[in-house]
Specification:
The chain has 9 helices and 13 strands. The protein has 261 residues and is α/β, with parallel strands linked by helices. The chain folds into 2 domains: 100 residues, 3-Layer(aba) Sandwich (Udp-n-acetylmuramoylalanyl-d-glutamate--2,6- Diaminopimelate Ligase, Chain: A, domain 1); 121 residues, NIF3 (NGG1p interacting factor 3)-like (Udp-n-acetylmuramoylalanyl-d-glutamate--2,6- Diaminopimelate Ligase, Chain: A, domain 1, 3-Layer(aba) Sandwich).
């Protein structure tokens, strides 16, 4: 299957590091670039539980959406969760690679996977990346037929495993849909200007919800984890297409920190 460096190069082709936000930390988080990889695992979060899962399954490489390290470490203090996970990965000989905001921009990327699960035909990004018509943040698209907001709520529950919150009216008909996996509430004004009837994302704050209601845009907050989770299986499928003989696993560990009340 190659080395960690081999897989890093493949991921850099799919999600160039230059597409990442300046504040982000993508690419190799910990590990030996020269290490041979006979099995790898794809996950959303590089938590201790996921690292243990990868080790138990015999994976030498863990590819995640969220980075393990966001800020430089001045020390490795295992009383802190991030430091503990770093030490754990190193001790177990597991390399960790993250594809974060560069995967948000990519086409197909995080929001394309979300749109596909929800049955949305993608037209293009909500906010284009440079002059591109395909790359960018979020996705605009249409449903095959007009449906009620209440039906979109049920789709989020059934297809994403989400516990969604609604800003708007349940019985309003919608057809043009905007989506953004993860924290996409900052795109509410852009989705409204693009003519979306409804916007599905996560992490909507109180005042952002007020702005959405005032603009007439329906918004479903389906949660950060639920709206990004489809990308995990989508990425695993793409990597299998690149390397049909590769042994690629998808993490089954629950990493959503929230529980239903």
């Amino acid at each position: 299957m190659g080395t960690v460096e081999t897989w890093l190069a493949k991921l850099d082709e799919l999600f160039p590091p230059s597409w990442a936000e300046e504040w982000d930390n993508t690419g190799l988080q910990v590990g030996d670039r020269s290490a041979e990889v006979s099995r790898l695992m794809v996950a959303l979060d590089p938590t201790s539980a996921v690292i243990d899962e990868a080790a138990g399954a015999g994976a030498r490489l863990l590819i995640t959406h969220h980075p393990l390290i966001f800020e430089p470490l001045s020390a490795v203090d295992v009383s802190r969760s991030v430091d503990r996970a770093v030490a754990q990965a190193l001790c177990l000989g597991i390399a960790v690679i993250a594809c974060h905001t560069n995967a948000d921009i990519a086409s197909p990327g995080v929001s394309d996977a979300l749109a596909e699960v929800l049955g949305i035909n993608v037209e293009g990004p909500i906010v284009p990346f440079g002059a591109s018509r395909e790359l960018g943040l979020g996705r605009m698209g249409t449903l095959a037929t007009s449906t009620q907001v209440a039906d979109m709520l049920e789709s989020c529950r059934d297809r994403l495993g989400a516990n969604p919150r609604l800003i708007g009216e349940r019985h309003h008909n919608v057809k043009r849909v905007a989506v953004c996996g993860g924290s996409g509430a900052s795109l509410i004004p852009d989705a409204a200007r693009a003519g979306a009837d409804i916007f599905i994302t996560g992490d909507v704050k109180h005042h952002q919800a007020l702005d959405a209601r005032a603009s007439g845009l329906h918004v479903i907050d389906a949660g950060h984890h639920a709206t990004e989770r489809p990308f995990v299986r989508s990425l695993a499928d793409r990597l299998r297409q690149l390397e049909p003989s590769a042994d690629i696993l998808v993490s089954e560990a629950r990493t959503d920190p929230f529980e239903e009340g």
